[in-house]
Design a protein that fits this description.
heterodimer; A: alpha/beta; seven-stranded mixed beta sheet; 12 helices; globular; B: alpha+beta; two-stranded antiparallel ribbon; binds iron/sulfur cluster
Chain lengths: ~400, ~100
């Protein structure tokens, strides 16, 4: 079948809901939380309108239960989906370990929102990055199209390596902002994403077994290692699935870090999610003005794209890491990870951390230009002014 | 693979896996429940009255240990090697067919 995209003007949240529908999810268990709510409302609408078959919606009383229900459904062999945001994701934390530990390929959309207090509903990546060590893969979407594509690819990757995956989009900047999204006809989605083949299924009554029985010190360790092996395998699977997606639908995701005009760049801006759209635009402006700059958008934060980062770092003099998140007592989380990766390599560009956009603070092309000037001066001088720059701080 | 799915307890032995490759991909039971006799934890034991039992198997579903089994005549039996005396079965039984009695050791 020839691929003719169906163009719809949708919000990031509706893009997520359509992707779940097109992935033919069988169980959705979710609890409403701003700004995620319209994802699950849309899914409820699909069910109410009879637009989906074989989709069970489980109304639960909290996010902890939402994930628990997804775990049960996924263990029984179903393709399970949920969505949440900030405090809701935090409440799910315990269950996130359960999903990855039991090796269940659940896919969740998390709408990045700042953690309270002060109470906030705006964009900030600290909620999802705080789940870094739960064994979930994490994909950061730049725009609504990437939310849609990300959900479809995540299911495929997750079901190949048997680990859960999170697709992350920005509060309001994507979740409630409408944009054209090219959707894929159902038959072609089915071709790309065939029905799930579970690793085990609880409903196989001829082979009873228990999930999550006691693991003594004699066995626990090996299961942790197996998760890490699956994460390592996921890097290759992600590249392969991303390439296949590109060949089928014209948008290539084979690179875990998307490089934008980095070829001859002196220094690059690195970051994740929607702010990288602004950065790419700024790179175009700066290039016109003679700056040799590029952008490196980290698509997958877990597994972390070590090889891609090394290749990039070898060829630039500096990396400005833009973190819309913060780990208190240390620094921006992406910055921390990126420095750690490069320490034992021969690639040591000057790296500076800019803390930007926390709690939805506006981050514009002009800001990127100011950061470019600062980076340029640092590189010329050969030393950092400060390592971690609270860029917007009212001084 | 019988390292994953235990048979009956007569054959139950502790399975020692020597290399990481022998482990199943997911932590589904390695027979730990089978060899771990939880029956010596208890103070009270459930006693089933077949005259009151209506074979609904709610107790069988709720028992957190592999302690309740379905006998050939369809009534439920308790495997006291595994029953830890929690009393969930007695609490859940809709006909009060199960009573918890102090165990004489
Ligand atoms: S007392 Fe507890 S362990 Fe024993 S049979 Fe009843 S539910 Fe099972
Ligand atoms: S719950 Fe009570 S009635 Fe039902 S099977 Fe068990 S003992 Fe019988």
């Amino acid at each position: 079948m020839e691929y003719k995209p169906i163009r719809k003007v949708v919000s990031g949240n509706y893009a997520a809901a359509y992707a779940a529908k097109h992935a033919r999810v069988e169980v959705v268990a979710a609890y409403p939380i701003t700004p995620q709510t319209s994802i699950i409302e849309k899914i409820a609408e699909f069910i109410a309108n009879g637009e989906v078959e074989n989709l069970q919606y489980v109304a639960v009383e909290s996010e902890h239960s939402a994930m628990a229900a997804c775990i049960g459904a996924s263990a029984a062999g179903a393709r399970a989906f949920t969505a949440t945001s900030a405090q809701g994701l935090a409440l799910m934390h315990e269950m996130l370990h359960w999903a990855s530990g039991a090796r269940l390929p659940i896919v969740m959309v998390n709408v990045n929102r700042a953690m309270a207090p002060p109470w906030s509903v705006w964009d900030d990546q600290t909620d999802s990055l705080a789940q870094r060590d739960t064994g979930w893969m994490q994909f950061y979407a730049e725009n609504n199209q990437e939310v849609y594509d990300g959900v479809l690819m995540s299911f495929k990757v997750a079901e190949t390596v048997n680990l859960p995956a999170m697709v992350v989009e920005s509060a309001f900047i994507l979740s409630h902002t409408y944009d054209i999204v090219e959707m894929i006809p159902q038959e072609l989605v089915d071709e790309f994403l065939p029905p799930r083949k579970p690793l085990y299924t609880l409903t196989d009554f001829d082979k009873p077994f228990s999930v999550g029985a006691l693991g003594t010190p004699a066995d626990y360790y090996e299961f942790r290692y197996k998760i890490e092996k699956a994460m390592e395998e996921a890097r290759e699977v992600i590249r392969k699935v991303g390439k296949e997606f590109g060949e089928m639908f014209g948008r290539d995701y084979s690179q875990m870090i998307e490089l934008y005009r980095t070829d001859d760049a002196d220094f690059v801006f690195m970051g994740m999610g929607s702010l990288m759209g602004t950065v790419k635009q700024a790179v175009d402006v700066l290039r016109e003005e003679g700056y040799k700059v590029g952008a490196a958008k980290v698509r997958w934060f877990r597994p972390f794209p070590k090889d891609e980062l090394y290749e990039l770092a070898k060829n630039v003099k500096g990396i400005a890491v833009l973190d819309r998140n913060f780990s208190f007592g240390q620094e921006g989380i992406l910055f921390n990870e990126a420095k750690g990766v490069l320490y034992n390599t021969d690639a040591h560009p000057i790296m500076k951390n800019y803390i930007v956009g926390l709690g939805g603070r506006d981050f514009t092309v002009n800001d990127v230009k100011k950061i470019a000037d600062n980076m340029k001066a640092i590189i010329e001088k050969g030393e950092l002014d400060v390592e971690v720059d609270w860029y917007h701080l009212k001084r | 693979m019988n390292t994953l799915f235990g048979e009956k307890k007569e054959g139950a032995t502790k399975i020692v896996l020597k290399s990481v490759d022998e482990y199943p991909e997911a932590p589904i039971t390695l027979g730990t429940t089978l060899i771990n006799f939880t029956g010596d934890w208890r103070t009270f034991i459930p006693v089933v009255d077949d005259n009151k039992c209506v074979k609904c198997y709610i107790c069988w579903k709720f028992c957190p240990e592999p302690a309740i089994y379905i006998r050939e005549d369809g009534y439920v039996g308790i495997d006291y090697d595994y029953c830890k005396g929690c009393g969930i079965c007695a609490n859940e039984c809709p006909t009060n067919a199960i009573t918890m009695e102090k165990e004489e050791k």
